[in-house]
Specification:
By secondary structure, this protein is of the alpha/beta class. It contains 6 helices and 5 strands. A 5-stranded mixed sheet has the order 2-1-3-4-5, with helices on both faces. Strand 4 and strand 5 form a beta hairpin. The model has no long low-confidence stretch (mean pLDDT 95).
Length: 172
């Protein structure tokens, strides 16, 4: 899996570099692993603007501007919260694209409505609609849920990188 994550991260960096795009990550259940996969590659600083690790609801509110009302209504693990995290990462950074991850890696913390292995993703680009994904990995173990979530987040960044127009020379 480490080799696959490295390949995905390199692909994201290459796509963003070719379009002069900056990216940001907003992570909960992955705890910074998406940003870590990207910054593990030398030279990534020309693409990676920042990463937000917002494990608690308070951090989601303070760092990304996710509203208390949204968290109360939908919960931290929801499509709505993932989208708000991605939008917040764009608002609080210089990034052109962002990905957000929130879920329940386990082994505890799940419920019938939101079981262990449920992860929501959102990818955002300035001026474009959110791309949302929901994955139910099941109770495959905390490490595997997190690894698969990192791969999914990197895949979303690659997709968004392909779809996002290059920055103009005046914004570089």
């Amino acid at each position: 899996m480490a080799r696959r994550l490295d390949m995905l991260a390199r692909r994201v960096l290459d796509l963003c570099r070719a379009r002069s795009l900056l990216l940001a990550t907003a992570e909960s259940c992955t705890g910074g692993l998406v940003a870590g996969a990207l910054t593990n590659i030398a030279g990534s600083s020309d693409v990676v603007d920042c990463g937000f690790v917002t494990y608690s609801n308070a951090a989601k509110q303070k760092m990304l501007g996710v509203s208390a009302a949204m968290l109360s209504r939908y919960g931290a693990v929801s499509a709505e919260t993932a989208a708000a995290m991605a939008k917040g990462a764009l608002k609080k950074s210089h990034a052109d694209i962002a990905v957000a991850v929130t879920g329940i890696a386990g082994p505890g913390g799940g419920s019938k409505e939101k079981p262990v292995g449920l992860v929501h993703f959102a990818a955002a680009a300035r001026g474009r609609p959110i791309i949302a994904r929901r994955r139910l990995y099941g109770a495959i173990g905390r490490d595997r849920v997190r690894e698969r979530s990192v791969a999914e987040a990197l895949s979303l960044l690659a997709l968004l990188g392909k779809r996002t127009k290059a920055r103009s020379a005046k914004h570089r």
